[in-house]
């Protein structure tokens, strides 16, 4: 256990924490990056405004996504820092200094990347926030982080290296990178073989990730729907009437699928509700993360279970300074007709384990139905029940149309 503990500590950095703590870290870092970048852009006299984690320029809106928020860089640099310090066999106090310093360095680096990208876009310069330029800049920053780590570790151990007093930078460098027999855990021949195989696996993984992202399959699923599948809602449901064709309030909905269909309904009391059907989605996606990232605050979140014969759904109360208050109803269904809204704690644990069970497969292709109403005037009990019934009816109709257009001979799960 003593010999393997350094490797196990490094491996822990690739295991997502339970209860959605990684999502909370994502939102926290996005907020820091957006706020800090906004203040620097103010100093640079770049006309902009922030709306959640979106930096809005006069000509376009820049979404501070996960990659720009520093989440990916933080985990990579944390793993590199742990590996390097454990390999050098440094003491606990060195870890306590280097890890916070590296995390701060990563956050500052990402603030620099976002600020530079927004400044260039404001002046009609190159786009550094998307595509290969974004990836290249990220790799350059990671290389700088590694150089900073080595420099900081050398600075901390400058007076004494390997038990010998020294002031020579050459001796320090040789000692830090000396592959002594005590550090070599496997024969050199097998070590080269293992290293080459590890490199091939890494290159293959990078190539596969590039292909998936290029084909937009990394976060969206392959659908088993028949070609030319059509979805529609009736002109009237109860007392609610459709208000025409088109995509009403499309910017208010948070969608992650390749296709999104929207309908707008109005009640006799002039309440307006938007219905959204979003597909295909890879696995179960917690849409509240997207709403929070776009500036909404979740003031209430409930999982509603009416009875044993009615599928559960999520109901949330939202608030946003620019839009006011709102209510959101969400349901997600997979291609086997299983509704995927389960208790949040159960969802967090089961998704991490990638098991089947009640979820019908954590990575199955799913289809999401939303009902969104933006209105600062509180709903009465009767109005609330009316909107809830509208959502349930639309959900049932769209689910019926979905399952009726599934091709059993077509594989829809990635």
The structural class is alpha+beta
Helical coverage, percent range: 40-55%
Question: How many beta strands in the DSSP annotation?
Answer: 13
N to C succession of SSEs: HHEEEHHHHEEHHEEEEHEEEHEH
Task: Note the main attributes of this structure.
single chain; 414 residues; alpha+beta; Protein Transport Mog1p, Chain A; 2 domains; eight-stranded antiparallel β-sheet; three-stranded antiparallel β-sheet; 11 helices; 13 strands; 18% strand; globular
Task: Report on the architecture of this protein.
There is one protein chain. The protein has 414 residues and is α+β, with helices and mostly antiparallel strands. 44% of the residues lie in helices and 18% in strands. Helix 2 packs across helix 5 and helix 4 packs parallel to helix 6 (131-156). Mean pLDDT is 76; it is low at 161-185, 246-250 and 354-362.
Short description:
The chain has 414 residues and is α+β, with helices and mostly antiparallel strands. The protein contains eleven helices and 13 strands.
């Amino acid at each position: 256990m003593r010999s393997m503990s350094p490797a196990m500590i490094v491996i822990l950095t690739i295991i997502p924490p339970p209860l959605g703590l990684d999502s909370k870290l994502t939102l926290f870092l996005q907020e820091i990056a957006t706020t800090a970048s906004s203040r620097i852009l103010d100093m640079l006299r770049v006309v902009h405004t922030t709306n959640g984690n979106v930096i809005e320029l006069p000509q376009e809106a820049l979404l501070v996504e996960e990659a720009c928020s520093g989440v990916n860089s933080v985990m990579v640099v944390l793993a590199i820092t742990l590996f390097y310090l454990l390999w050098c066999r440094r003491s606990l106090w060195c870890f306590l200094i280097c890890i916070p310093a590296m995390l701060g360095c990563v956050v500052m680096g990402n603030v620099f990347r976002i600020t530079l990208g927004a400044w260039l876009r404001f002046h009609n310069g190159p786009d550094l926030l998307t595509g290969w330029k974004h990836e290249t800049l990220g790799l350059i920053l990671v290389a700088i982080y590694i150089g900073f780590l080595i420099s900081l570790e050398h600075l901390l151990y400058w007076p004494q290296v390997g038990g010998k007093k020294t002031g020579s930078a050459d001796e320090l460098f040789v000692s830090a990178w000396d592959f002594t027999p005590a550090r070599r855990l496997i024969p050199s021949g097998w070590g080269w073989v293992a290293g080459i195989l590890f490199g091939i696996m890494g290159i293959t993984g990078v190539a596969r990730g590039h292909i998936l992202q290029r084909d937009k399959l990394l976060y969206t699923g392959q659908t088993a729907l028949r070609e030319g599948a059509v979805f529609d809602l009736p002109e009237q449901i109860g007392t609610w009437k459709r208000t025409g064709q088109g995509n009403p309030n499309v910017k208010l909905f948070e969608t992650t699928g390749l296709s999104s269909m929207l309908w707008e309904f109005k009640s006799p009391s002039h309440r307006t509700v938007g219905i959204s059907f979003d597909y295909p989605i890879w696995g179960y996606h917690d849409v509240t993360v997207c709403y929070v990232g776009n500036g909404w605050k979740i003031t209430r979140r409930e999982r509603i279970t009416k009875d044993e014969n009615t599928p559960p759904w999520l109901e949330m109360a939202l608030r946003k300074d620019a839009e006011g208050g709102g209510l959101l109803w969400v349901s997600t269904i997979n291609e086997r007709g299983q509704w995927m809204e389960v208790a949040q704690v159960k969802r967090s644990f089961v998704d991490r384990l990638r098991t089947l069970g009640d979820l019908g497969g954590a990575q199955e292709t799913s289809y999401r139905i939303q009902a969104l109403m933006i209105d600062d005037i509180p709903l009465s009990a009767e109005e609330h029940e009316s909107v809830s019934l509208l959502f349930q009816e639309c959900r049932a109709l769209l689910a019926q149309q979905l399952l009726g257009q599934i091709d059993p001979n077509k594989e829809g799960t990635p």
